[in-house]
From TrEMBL, chain A:
<dbReference type="InterPro" id="IPR035906">
    <property type="entry name" value="MetI-like_sf"/>
</dbReference>
<feature type="transmembrane region" description="Helical">
    <location>
        <begin position="272"/>
        <end position="294"/>
    </location>
</feature>
<protein>
    <submittedName>
        <fullName>ABC transporter permease</fullName>
    </submittedName>
</protein>
<keyword id="KW-0813">Transport</keyword>
<feature type="transmembrane region" description="Helical">
    <location>
        <begin position="226"/>
        <end position="252"/>
    </location>
</feature>
TrEMBL record, chain B:
<dbReference type="GO" id="GO:0055085">
    <property type="term" value="P:transmembrane transport"/>
</dbReference>
<keyword id="KW-1003">Cell membrane</keyword>
<dbReference type="GO" id="GO:0015833">
    <property type="term" value="P:peptide transport"/>
</dbReference>
<keyword id="KW-0067">ATP-binding</keyword>
<keyword id="KW-0472">Membrane</keyword>
From TrEMBL, chain C:
<dbReference type="InterPro" id="IPR035906">
    <property type="entry name" value="MetI-like_sf"/>
</dbReference>
<keyword id="KW-0812">Transmembrane</keyword>
<comment type="similarity">
    <text>Belongs to the binding-protein-dependent transport system permease family.</text>
</comment>
<keyword id="KW-1003">Cell membrane</keyword>
<dbReference type="GO" id="GO:0055085">
    <property type="term" value="P:transmembrane transport"/>
</dbReference>
Automatic annotation (TrEMBL), chain D:
<protein>
    <submittedName>
        <fullName>ABC transporter ATP-binding protein</fullName>
    </submittedName>
</protein>
<keyword id="KW-0472">Membrane</keyword>
<dbReference type="GO" id="GO:0005524">
    <property type="term" value="F:ATP binding"/>
</dbReference>
<dbReference type="InterPro" id="IPR013563">
    <property type="entry name" value="Oligopep_ABC_C"/>
</dbReference>
<dbReference type="Pfam" id="PF08352">
    <property type="entry name" value="oligo_HPY"/>
</dbReference>
Length: 304, 317, 294, 368, 489
């Protein structure tokens, strides 16, 4: 168990390292950041001074070392546009994203599980076809399009919901639906197939052979098992939801990290882009690690 | 007479993922196969039979011990240097569905060893050899053009045998070649194997669960328990007069339709097979052994020659 | 639970009782778009990049004020929406298709090698894959796009760089199980070299998976490409890309110019839908265990 | 015909289970898998069902509890159990019977236990459901049941999960689940196939012991003739979805009447026998849906007659197939009519076995 | 006593506000920070209520006849928002500290700033500089905004950016960079107590979303709604559509005009491009006709503007010119760099394509675009513009003089003329010199002017005094202290 823990943590550390290296190298590919930081027409001396200040006069490996050391201390550089530490910007927006993603997570999971189970129970009936059709459509629908249609309908035509920004609960409705839509369609499919698989398993067969009531068979024996892969996927998706929110947050002017990334791109604010991307990856790696360790602690079968 | 293939004190330990433990799949096994001889390997599930097969085929390097082929050690032999061995030793595995590449035609599968070998053959020569091999396993030549999924288990096993034979090897390792087959097909394959052995003077390492079947085809039977060889000896003797308490228990558990209900009335096996991850101390069989003495618990017996047998038991003399 | 029908008590096994016409429709949709993409120069009624400000915001032909010559209407610069959609198909399919193929070839090759050879190569590749997979595809793509700047070629490179890891991961795990399959063991026993085993025994057996993955991926790639355009780091304007049209059309949405968003969105959705239907169908189709015995 | 079947089982009064002319087809009725299956079973007796893979054994087991997989339909026949016609009962009534009066043990003990639930939960829920026991006493009973299937430390085992047990122990748990509501009939679908020989013998002994103790009837499905010979009172030999021979264990193993039964027995290697001279059956069993008119075994039968290819024989009183089934003779026999007249065989009266074979069955008038 | 400030007004902004805007000492030379500065700060002299260089914190300006000294007398009892007194020391401090756009020029010309007494401060120039007030006293630089010396020395530059204090009508209450800034009326403002208690500036990047927000009453002002959105706003009941009269021109810089290898180095090609663009159509399509067609880089409202000949849209002649220049089949003109929020790039690109000049659009976000323009690394065409206040001379210095902060022009003749005019105290002569420069620009086709841009402001139904065009040259709504909310709303 301990050994498993160490290997998993080891892998995560290596992945973090590779991730950091990737982001670092790619950012350096974009050219000298000093020119972006300085006012136009800066003197050669100023440039040199700034390069020294930023540590750009060192070789790449040394720079990388500094980058890692700084990052470990929570110093991800200063936003070019906002002139303040990127990490402050990031932390300022993170709660907004987490809230949005959290609600979208709950809504998508609830909808996905409910529809998935229904589709499986009524497999190959009209209900099943309808649910699967919607799910398929959901997977195929680009989120920003869905968002626009929602705005067109609920904000423009009906004037029911605010089209943007954060504020009251009404502000959550459309972003949450838009963000959760794709995921709920995915959960729907996964729940359905996982449920069907479990329903045809021997232990569900045995549960029927025991003469148990359908509700017991479905909830106690089938659903419990079928929900595991869905939850695993969902746990991992929770984080990628925060990050996939770029489009949704931009569309609905939601002040989260997705929009921060978008603004970073717009302003060519490389420290911001680099940090948002890096921290997304870090979050996902850590959550994956946590999910791994947790599931090894929870699922009696994985326990060693 | 030098042995065709010899396993000398071979041990195979697999690490258990995420722990410091190992699976002692094979421990200190020595076994030799003479040319033209069939060695039958029996034992319960997980006792290490397939591991032996993989080691004998050099699909795996043992943790310790060495494999000798025609008197020469194969330790550290790799790549091209292994070619002569590869041509001489072929295999047939248990699952006739997994043994054939679903994407290759039967003919291509059978010709595979030819292509990998040093023999330079033209396409027509190859086709001829394939037809020959098919004929040997009593399949019509036109099946060469078909794909595996169009065949039944028995037919696939014939194809697998044809592939094993196409290079005219001297040894074929058969890991449970009949276990997955229907009862009514088993005898067909056993007969075929025996016939081919006669014709080509093949040696077999024959692994199976089905004790009567092993008895029917083997010259020598080796009995494995939890990674160790407990008893080795001539087939007839082992079946009728087992020396090791485990061998006795195993053969007594065979239920036959002969109606005398002998096994049923006599045998009362006890306990569960030992786990190779966590083997008992001393003799690994001692927790189930009706005759176990104190020594069995503490001291692991060594393999000893007793008459025509090699037995690993403190009690057999 | 008494409302459950008898069929709920005994749920169907996942037998493929899908309507058989579905894949044909999917193929038809994809075919239409493919023809549009290939023959755009001949099919499109107008030059998609040509603006005529006097013809701004013409609605579709069947709406009041629409003109037959501009069947699906015009955009804020008076460009023909239909022509843009037709040329947009080219960008979507070419960018999507090429990147999926490049990612597929690369990912499959690396996946096979990593899975079969194992050792340090496997370790290095898989850590890289882990790290890269940790980046949500869109975020990673945006990052790369911001780094290398937008152009169609760059976009292909970016999407391939983002998506190869998925193939590598899937193919590798498949190879890991194939490697333990008897027919691979028997090929080793028969004396086949590693390269031969990878090319002849592993590749054909993972090819299906890779193809199915590719069709399913095509959808995500097209949506990602559109999202990039939408965020302004995709195909640079005024190339008529669907994502870009949506992004531009968003401004007209509020003013009621719905056709600027509805049609390109519909195109994306149809292509993605068709691709994933074909993917599903191929998955069933190529699975030898589901193939009828002859 | 049912009297005939009952006569075999030696029961004059109504049997516990009686199956009449049962047919099942897959794929919504297109692929027949079982046809004309009839047998009956008296209380306390054990019927062995043997047959090769795919001959419909599991389908039969599922049909008996009215739980056929999706796509499978019953195409005819009826099943009577304990005085009720199962095939006419509504689902709710069947639910009360399943697990209570009819219990089942499946082949793979690992996959038939829910990996996420404790052993105790899985056993206790049966008595909670059918015996209406409260949770606590259901768990107490579960512990007793585990003890009765001779599992060591039952109290601790209750709290464990399936993956923590060995194959043999899991199968015992499955046995405990089956016995939880004291059923009248136990259907065991290849319960020992996944077990090692030594463990198999232990388990079979346990089952027989429990049967003696509780008096339930058992339908024991297997492909292992050795097992059947040792533990069953009656045997049904199945081939391609039909029962080709039905009779007492002694009759079937000593004097098989169907050439298939005979050939199966002959093809098994005996100790001392050498491979190469085993009497193999040529060809292979048909797949469902492939069976055409006539006897399904005809293509492989050494004694095939023209009539065999035309019409399918029904299960009738038969004489022992007193034939040399040596493979060398088989081909010549196949082309010529059988030398001995079945009706003249003296052993007919003594046997109570039925076989579906034109060659060996006793003509109606002779029977009368 | 005036009524206490009440209510909240909310803006839907098209630009991202950042805390770097808090410090006028770092004014980047774009108009954006004005949005905050008018609320937060006040200046010695600045555009105010109808006067482009009106006295604000100062109530008296004495100018010496030699044009070398300027003495400002501050109003009495001025206070910063934290209650500290505002004195001449602060004025000097702010000037010395200034390092934003135009700082070098300003400091090169100013010999000394002397605090005469707590209310008087004197600027001494090295040589006569007629534009001193234009630079110091308008928003061409941010040097005249007065910052609290004591406070800044206490908290440091970083601390100041986190919690800025100014002398303006509104005090910063809370801010989330890039999202929302909240201001609260200050009781210390000299001019008057503001009418509205709270101002909320919200960045809504997407124009459609901005429109939706104002339609639903979530914001009271929405900036920069163009094209369809503007039309829709105009159609919507309750919304008012206005345009700020600001001297902003949109023009295309031929960034590659000195690259011998580029077709753009040929004046005929540049002329062809000039007449290939239909300015009127673009105005109608993008700005609902609110903008003005433009033929000069200098806005018409600016002092020293010279009215150039108007080029006539004539694609046929453009093609002919191209053929004469050796490009009968057109050519590949490289990138057309634009600001992403811009309305002109695409139609221009399309018009150019019409005559065979193929350019590739390269939009970036406004701030990024400006930065790139200033870095002068761009090639091909650069669509830019400027809303910087000032006069024709300041514009020319920035965009035309060799080495000017955004200049891609290198023309020795023009540079000479510009140098001359900068020392010319005679207004007529100076006008002539500047006209000469503009003539040269026009003749030599240094630019492709397109439109004088309309900064569209949509106001919602709650707004009483909307502040549009109350401050000269200010595109935004102000003075903030004068804004009102309609009673009963
Ligand atoms: N690659 C491996 N890694 C880890 N453990 C292994 C591996 N291969 C086999 N083992 C373990 O080694 C032991 C012996 O396995 P082996 O397959 O040799 O048994 P076997 O006698 O062939 O059993 P069976 O009759 O079930 O085929 C088992 O406990 C098995 O789990
Ligand atoms: N769900 C299904 N749909 C279609 N055909 C099926 C289905 N389940 C089983 N069959 C077919 O029905 C036949 C009988 O199956 P069944 O499982 O009853 O055989 P069996 O005698 O139990 O075989 P085994 O010994 O392998 O368990 C087989 O040929 C099988 O292929
Ligand atoms: Mg094995
Ligand atoms: Mg079965």
């Amino acid at each position: 168990m301990l050994r498993f823990f160490y290997t998993r943590v080891g892998y995560a550390v290596v992945s973090l390292f590779v991730l950091t290296l990737t982001v670092f190298l790619l950012t350096r590919l974009t050219g000298d950041p000093t020119l972006m930081l300085l006012e136009p027409g800066a003197s050669a001396a100023d440039i040199a001074a700034l390069r020294t200040r930023l540590g750009l006069d060192h070789s790449l490996p040394v720079q990388f070392w500094f980058f890692v050391v700084d990052a470990l201390q929570g110093d991800f550089g200063t936003s070019i546009y906002h002139g303040m530490p990127v990490i402050d910007l990031y932390l300022e927006r993170l709660p907004n994203s987490l809230m949005l993603a959290g609600l979208a997570f709950i809504w998508s999971l609830a909808l996905g599980l409910a529809c998935g189970v229904l589709a499986a129970l009524y497999a190959n009936t009209r209900w099943d076809h309808a649910i699967r059709f919607v799910a398929l459509g959901g997977l195929a629908m680009p989120p920003f399009w869905l968002g626009m249609l929602l705005v067109l309908f609920f904000s423009v035509r009906l004037d029911w919901l605010p089209s943007s920004g954060d504020g009251g609960w009404a502000n959550f409705v459309m972003p949450v639906i838009t963000l959760g839509w794709y995921f709920s369609a995915a959960y729907m499919r996964l729940t359905r197939s996982s449920m069907l698989e479990v329903l045809s398993s021997d232990y569900v067969k045995l549960a029927r052979l025991k003469g148990l009531r359908p509700w017991t068979v479905i909830m106690q024996h089938a659903f419990r098992n079928a929900v595991i892969p869905v939850l695993t996927l969902a746990a991992i998706n929770l984080v990628s939801m925060v990050n996939s929110a770029v489009v949704v947050e931009t569309l609905f002017a939601w002040p989260g990290i997705g929009r921060l990334l978008y603004e970073g791109i717009s302003f060519r604010d490389f420290p911001v882009i680099q940090t948002t991307v890096l921290l997304s990856g870090v979050m996902i790696i850590l959550v994956n690690l946590l999910a791994d360790l947790l599931s090894s602690a929870l699922d009696p079968r994985i326990r060693l | 007479m030098s042995a065709l293939l010899e396993l000398r004190d071979i041990t195979m330990h697999y690490p258990v993922r995420g722990t410091r433990n190992v699976v002692r799949a094979v421990d200190g096994v020595s076994l030799s196969i003479q040319p033209g001889q069939t060695v039958g390997l029996v034992g319960e599930s997980g006792s290490g039979k397939s591991t032996i097969a993989k080691l004998a085929l050099k699909l795996q390097e043992p943790t310790s011990g060495e494999l000798r082929f025609q008197g020469e050690s194969l330790k550290g032999v790799k790549g091209r240097a292994l070619k002569p061995f590869r041509q001489q030793v072929q295999a047939v595995f248990q699952d006739p569905y997994a043994s054939l590449n679903p994407r290759l035609r039967i003919g291509e599968t059978i010709a595979e060893p030819l292509l990998a070998s040093d023999e330079r053959l033209s396409a027509s020569q190859r086709a001829e050899r394939v037809a020959e091999a098919l004929a040997a396993v009593e399949l019509p030549a036109d099946v060469a053009q078909r794909y595996p999924h169009q065949f039944s288990g028995g037919q696939r096993q014939r194809v697998a045998i044809a592939r094993a034979l196409i290079l005219k090897p001297s040894l074929v390792v058969l890991d449970e070649p009949i276990s997955a087959l229907d009862v009514s097909i088993r005898a067909q394959i056993l007969n075929l194997l025996a016939e081919l052995q006669q014709k080509h003077r093949l040696a077999y390492l024959f692994i199976a669960h089905d004790l009567p079947a092993v008895g029917a085809i083997s010259d020598v039977i080796a009995v494995m328990y939890c990674g160790e060889l407990l008893e080795t000896g001539p087939a007839a003797g082992i079946a009728t007069q087992p020396r090791h308490p485990y061998t006795r228990m195993l053969f007594a558990s065979v239920l036959t339709p002969d109606g005398d209900q002998q096994a049923w009335n006599t045998a009362e096996p006890v306990g569960e097979p030992a786990s190779p991850t966590n083997p008992p101390s001393g003799c690994r069989f001692h927790p189930r052994c009706p005759e176990a003495i104190a020594r069995c618990r503490s001291e692991s017996p060594l393999a000893r020659q007793v008459g025509d047998r090699v037995v690993r038991c403190h009690l057999v003399t | 639970m008494s409302a459950l029908p008898a069929s709920a008590a005994v749920p169907a096994a996942p037998r493929k009782a899908r309507w058989r016409g579905l894949p044909y429709i999917a193929f038809a949709i994809l075919g239409v778009f493919l023809i549009m993409a290939l023959g755009a120069d001949f099919i499109a009624p107008h030059n998609p990049e040509r603006a005529a400000l006097s013809l701004r915001y013409l609605p579709p032909a069947w709406v009041d004020g629409g003109r037959a010559a501009y069947f699906l209407g015009t955009d804020h610069l008076g460009r023909d929406v239909l022509s843009q959609l037709i040329f947009g198909a080219r960008i979507s399919l070419i960018v999507g298709g090429t990147s999926v193929v490049i990612a597929g070839v690369l990912g499959t090759a690396i996946g096979i090698a990593a899975g079969y050879l194992g050792g340090w190569f496997d370790q290095v590749m898989m850590r890289l894959v882990d790290a890269w997979l940790a980046l949500p595809s869109l975020v990673f793509a945006i990052f790369l796009a911001a780094v290398v700047g937008p152009s169609e070629t760059n976009l292909v490179v970016i999407l391939a760089a983002v998506y190869w890891t998925r193939y590598a991961r899937v193919v590798r795990s498949e190879v890991l199980s194939l490697r333990e399959r008897d027919f691979v063991r028997l090929a080793i026993v028969a004396g086949a070299s590693p390269s031969r085993i990878m090319a002849r025994h592993l590749l054909p057996n993972v090819a299906n998976t890779a193809i199915v993955l590719a069709t399913l991926m095509l959808g995500s790639v097209i949506v990602t490409e559109a999202s990039l355009s939408f965020l302004g780091v995709g195909v640079p304007p005024p190339r008529p890309a669907w994502g870009l049209m949506l992004s531009d059309g968003r401004k007209g949405l509020m003013a009621g110019y719905w056709w600027l968003t509805v049609f390109p969105g519909l195109c994306i959705m149809l292509v993605v839908l068709a691709a994933s239907l074909i993917g599903d169908w191929l998955r069933d189709r190529l699975d030898p265990s589901l193939r009828p015995l002859s | 015909m049912s009297e005939q079947i009952n006569s075999i089982t030696g029961t004059s009064d109504a049997p516990l289970l009686s199956v009449t002319d049962l047919g099942v087809a897959y794929d919504g009725g297109r692929i027949p898998v079982l046809s004309g299956v009839s047998f009956s079973l008296a209380a306390g007796r054990t019927l062995g069902v043997v047959g090769e893979s795919g001959c419909g054994k599991s389908t039969l087991a599922q049909a008996l509890v009215q739980l056929l997989p999706a796509g499978a339909v019953r195409t005819g026949g009826r099943i009577d159990f304990n005085g009720r016609e199962l095939t006419a009962l509504p689902e709710t009534a069947l639910r009360d019977i399943r697990g209570k009066d009819i219990a089942m043990i499946l082949q793979d003990p690992l996959s038939s236990l829910n990996p996420l639930l404790r052993i105790g939960t899985q056993i206790a829920e049966v008595s909670q459901r059918h015996l209406k026991l409260p949770r606590r006493s259901a768990w107490d009973r579960a512990r007793e049941l585990l003890a009765s299937v001779r599992l060591s430390e039952p109290a601790q085992r209750l709290r464990e999960y399936p993956h923590q047990l060995s194959g043999g122990m899991r199968q015992r748990v499955a046995g405990a689940i089956a016995l939880a509501a004291s059923p009248k009939l136990l259907i065991a679908d290849e319960p020992t196939t996944a077990l090692d020989p030594t463990v198999q013998v232990q388990y079979l002994r346990l089952l027989k012991g429990l049967q003696r103790e509780h008096g339930f009837s058992m339908v024991f499905i297997t492909h292992d003739l050795g097992v059947v010979a040792n533990i069953c009172d009656e045997v049904a030999v199945m081939y391609a979805g039909r029962i080709v021979e039905l009779g007492t264990t002694a009759d079937i193993f000593k004097t098989p009447a169907h050439p298939y039964t005979r050939a199966l027995l002959d093809s098994l290697p005996r100790i001392g026998e050498r491979a190469g001279s085993l009497r193999a059956i040529s060809g292979q069993p048909p797949r469902p849906g492939q069976v055409t008119g006539g006897c399904a075994f005809a293509p492989r039968c050494p004694h095939v007659m023209p009539k065999c290819r035309e019409a399918s024989p029904t299960l009738l009183a038969s004489v022992a197939a007193d034939l040399s089934l040596d493979s060398s003779v088989a081909s010549s026999v196949a082309s010529s009519p059988v030398p001995s007249s079945p009706a003249s065989t003296a052993t007919t009266r003594a046997r109570r076995s039925l076989a579906a074979c034109w060659l060996t069955q006793v003509p109606a008038e002779a029977h009368a | 006593a005036p009524a206490a400030p009440q209510g909240t007004l909310t803006w839907g902004l098209s630009l991202s506000l950042t805390s770097t805007f808090f410090d006028p000492g770092e004014t980047p030379g774009t108009g954006a920070p004005l949005l905050l500065q008018y609320a937060q700060h006040d200046a010695v002299i600045r555009p105010i209520a109808g006067n482009p260089s009106g006295l604000s914190l100062a109530d008296k300006l004495e100018q010496s006849d030699d044009g070398l000294t300027y003495t400002f007398t501050l109003r009495p009892n001025l206070r910063f928002q934290n209650g500290d007194a505002l004195t001449a020391e602060d004025v000097k401090f702010s000037f010395d500290r200034y390092r934003g756009a135009g700082a070098k020029l300003l400091k090169d010309k100013v010999a000394e700033v002397a605090v005469l007494d707590p209310l008087r401060v004197r600027f001494k120039l090295k040589e006569p500089w007629p534009d001193f007030l234009t630079f110091y006293g308008t928003t061409a630089t941010g040097a005249a905004w007065v910052l609290p010396k004591k406070y800044i020395e206490e908290v440091g530059d970083e601390g100041f950016k986190k919690a800025p204090i100014g002398a303006g009508p509104y005090r910063l209450k809370a801010f989330k960079p890039g999202i929302e800034f909240n201001f609260e009326a200050s009781e210390h403002y000299w001019r008057k107590t503001p009418n509205v208690k709270n101002l909320v500036f919200r960045y809504i990047p997407d124009p459609a979303t901005r429109l939706a927000a104002i339609k639903r009453g979530e914001v009271d002002f929405a900036y920069a709604l163009t094209g369809a959105l503007g039309e829709e706003a105009r159609r919507t009941k309750g919304l008012t559509l206005k345009t700020a009269n600001i001297p902003v021109t949109n023009f295309i810089v031929f960034a590659s005009q000195y690259d011998e290898k580029s077709p753009w180095s040929n004046p005929k090609v540049r002329e062809a491009a000039d007449i290939a663009v239909d300015r009127k159509a673009i105005n109608d399509a993008s700005y609902m006709g609110l903008a003005r067609e433009s033929y000069s880089a200098i806005p018409q409202a600016m002092a020293f503007y010279w009215n150039p000949p108007q080029s006539v849209y004539d694609p046929a002649r453009a093609k002919k010119l191209l053929a004469e220049a050796g490009y009968p089949n057109g050519f590949d003109g490289g990138f057309l760099h634009t600001d992403a929020s811009d309305q002109i790039g695409e139609p221009v690109q399309s018009y150019l394509a019409e005559v065979g000049i193929r350019v590739q659009l390269r939009p970036s976000e406004r701030a990024a675009h400006l930065k790139q323009v200033a870095e002068k690394k761009l090639t091909g065409l650069v669509l830019t513009g400027s809303g910087a206040p000032g006069n024709a001379a300041t514009r020319l210095d920035q965009f035309v003089r060799t080495g000017g902060s955004m200049s891609y022009v290198k023309d020795a003749d023009i540079d000479t003329l510009l140098d001359q005019q900068s020392r010319e105290l005679n207004k007529e002569k100076r006008t002539a010199q500047l006209a000469q420069v503009q003539t040269l620009l026009s003749e030599r086709q240094r630019f492709l002017p397109v439109l004088e841009y309309a900064f569209v402001i949509v106001t919602g139904p709650r707004v009483g005094v909307d502040g549009v065009n109350l401050i000269p040259d200010n595109p935004y709504t102000g003075p903030y202290e004068d804004l009102t909310i309609k009673p009963g709303q």
